[in-house]
Amino acid sequence: QVHLVESGGGLVKPGGSLRLSCAASGDAFGYYAAGWFRQAPGKDREFVGAITWRGRSTYMEDSVKDRFTIFRDNAKNTVYLQMNSLKPEDTAVYFCALDRQSEYGGPPSYFADSESYGSWGQGTQVTVSS
Q1: DSSP state at residue 119
Q2: What is the CB neighbour count within 10 angstroms for residue 14?
Q3: Distance between CA 42 and CA 19 in Å, rounded?
Q4: Concatenated DSSP letters of 11-40
């Protein structure tokens, strides 16, 4: 079981930026796709974006695709979520997760499904407010 730890959350004003990090334990991180999800109070967890295991492809949810970017550094066992032009509706706890399957390049719908992920971090709070 891979242990994931998110960091980088906090309070930011509308229009601001944050970079979330997700650090993974173990040596196998580089063989797994990674995803970011978020959950706002009273709402279901929703997909934000994902990056394939080699980092060659990313898939972003429509409401964030022009503002958020995912990238990874496999040498550092870390995946990042760069969030720009933040809006109050981006306020949520953000979670990172690793694919259940190693070296898998499935369709975008696969990576948008939370059931595709077997390891989850504890989450980091992002609050966008003036």
Answers
A1: E
A2: 13
A3: 24
A4: EE-TT--EEEEEEE-SS-GGGEEEEEEEE-
Question: CA distances (Å), 128 to each of 20, 42, 50, 51, 95, in order?
Answer: 14, 17, 22, 24, 17
Neighbours of 3 (CB within 10 A): 11
d(CA 93, CA 24): 18
Sheet order of strands, 68-73 included: 4-7, 18-24, 78-83, 68-73
* Gap between the Cα atoms of 81 and 89, Å rounded: 17
Average the pLDDT over 47-51 and give the result. 98
Per-residue pLDDT averaged across 40-45, rounded? 96
Tokens linked to 95:
């979670």
